Amino acid sequence: MDVIPKDQLSGALRRGAVKKHVAAIHVSGKLTLLQRKLSNVLLLNAYDTLVSRSRHQIDARTLCMMIGYNSNDMDTLKQSLRGLAETVAEWDMLDEKGQQEWGVSSLLSYAKLKGGVCEYAYSPALAEKLHDPKVFALINLNIQRRFTSGHALALYENCYRFVRTGSTGWWALDLFRRLMGVDQSAYYETFKHLNAKIIKPAVDEINRTSNIILTPETRKQGRAVVEIRFRIRENPQLAILDMDDGEGVRHGPVYARLRDLGVSDRLARQWLASHGEDQVRARLDYVEGRKNVKSKVGYLAAALEGGFAEAGAGEAATAPTPRGARLGRVLEAVKSRTPTQRDADRRLFLSQLTDGALRADFEKHGWLSPLNADRIAGFWDEISPGVLGG
């Protein structure tokens, strides 16, 4: 397994959440799902030095890992970067003196890939807007990775910044179409089509996979829908995906081990919230026992977040139990699948779980889910007969 160099994992990147400027959110509706995730990770990586540095760098493989795109297909990454450079950001807001300011800029002024490193930059004007803390919404990258629809992620970003007020307020349909990136499609000028193809699927995915629940409401003029708003409340079942800024987790032994290893406070708390102490402890044991690893933090990040590294859990025990050996073979089978196949496998397995507790355990732990161990083994035995060794 390749090691991600520590010097390519900046303190900002370890944060696990990105503050997203409202103007950037508003203009990125036309981005694909991959481009939208890519935009968020690039911003997170650059955030601490947005106004002090003119150029930013990130290891290309780390970049793919952070957006959940486990592939060496650099052509797709190039296409996504090209899309960001060709997408226009536009803002219209009051400055600190109360004067109206309008501006326009490409989302990235340039990007290049060289020697396995992605270098990129923002225009100075856009960098200032992106770094202004008064107009930010906090986007948790762990939640972002769960989305499979660009429209759902776009709607989530535009709604999440209103979570404390409980409602987005009324949006004219023309503005809403722009936020979703469908403002130039005649098909979606009809609300029936907009509702069936954009609104309902996006709301359903957000309510199933994120830390908020949306309820759309419409306002009519005569018989025509002219405005829409979204009521917002926290999703108690998936609240674990949101960052807990309390002190409790900081007193645990696993948290202390993460900090001793060099993991930032914020990332340590996010990993513990997302994966649970048992899973993080197991991965820590494995990583700390490895020799000739230059960056144990990067290695641990790959083991916890990157699908290409999950087989490490199967290698961790020198004398695995039969169940442990079976799990290792399952993880090897998962590793051998393409990203598209992995997504389809997860969806298919989830569709077979009718019990809420089983679904929740799988959504939290994935193929490591202890409550579904036997079901997972049976599932993979059907997908790849003989994969479990008998």
Automatic annotation (TrEMBL):
SUPFAM superfamilies named in the record: Winged helix' DNA-binding domain
Annotated Pfam families: Rep3_C, Rep3_N
Molecular-function GO term, any one: DNA-directed DNA polymerase activity
Domain Initiator Rep protein WH1: 18-159
Cleavable signal peptide: none
GO biological processes: DNA replication initiation
Family: Belongs to the initiator RepB protein family.
Protein name stated in the entry: Replication protein RepB
